[in-house]
């Protein structure tokens, strides 16, 4: 996902119902921010927001 980080954050925290995409909320905010940042820059991806911070996960995680 290259769009708004919040949409991607929600997929990783909650998974996607009805698909094989499970929740990854057992990972820490630091781990999730790292993997999200990786996907936004690897494979020639150039997301507008390339850096996702742990505090962005903390804000969405409840
Ligand atoms: C670190 C591991 C993973 C990350 C970071 C990740 C991330 C994501 C993201 C961001 C999306 C949403 C893509 C979009 O809507 O544009 C997605 C969708 C999906 N993921 Fe994962 N995923 C991971 C592991 C897995 C695994 C292990 C499976 C299956 C065994 C899986 C199955 C799926 C499926 C089927 C979708 C599509 C759901 C749909 O059709 O709406 N993911 N994943």
Topology:
Layout: H1 5-14, H2 29-41, H3 54-60
Which characteristics define this entry?
binds protoporphyrin IX containing FE; 62 residues; mainly alpha; 48% helix
Any overview of this molecule?
Helix content is 48%, strand content 0%. With 62 residues, the chain is an all-alpha fold. It has one domain (5-60). The protein is globular, with a radius of gyration of 11 Å. The chain starts with a helix and ends with a helix. The model has no long low-confidence stretch (mean pLDDT 96). Bound molecules: protoporphyrin IX containing FE. Protoporphyrin IX containing FE is lined by residues 1, 8, 11-12, 16, 19-21, 35, 39.
Order of helices and strands: HHH
Question: What structural class do the secondary elements suggest?
Answer: mainly alpha
* Total beta strand runs: 0
Number of domains: 1
Task: Average the pLDDT over all residues and give the rounded result.
Answer: 96
What portion of residues belong to β-strands? under 5%
End-to-end separation in angstroms reads 22 Å
- From the alpha-carbon coordinates, what is the Rg to the nearest angstrom? 11 Å
Bound molecules: protoporphyrin IX containing FE
